[in-house]
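[job 4471] stage=fold_predict status=RUNNING
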Amino acid sequence: MKNYEIMFIVKPLEEEATNAVITKFETLITVNGGTVEKIDRWGKRRLAYEVKDFIDGFYVLMHFACEPKVIAELDRVMKITEDIIKHMIIRKEE
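[job 4471] inference complete, writing structure tokens
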């Protein structure tokens, strides 16, 4: 398994809805054989520029380990999830 981190921005929602989105991706990783090491919730912050008509978003940084095939599925689901404004997946150096 390789180590990755993903930064994603959830559109401004109620706290329960935001937690549900974060849990959805945490579950996606673990169901596919990965392990989530750490989740940093940076909280609601103003975006540098307007994205998809939003000026604020809830920032989340997740550190995890998984097989490379899981990354393709994670990226696909992030792209079709309406509650995600932006995301970026980075492979961490060993």
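[job 4471] summary: The first strand starts at residue 2 and ends at 10.
[job 4471] exit 0
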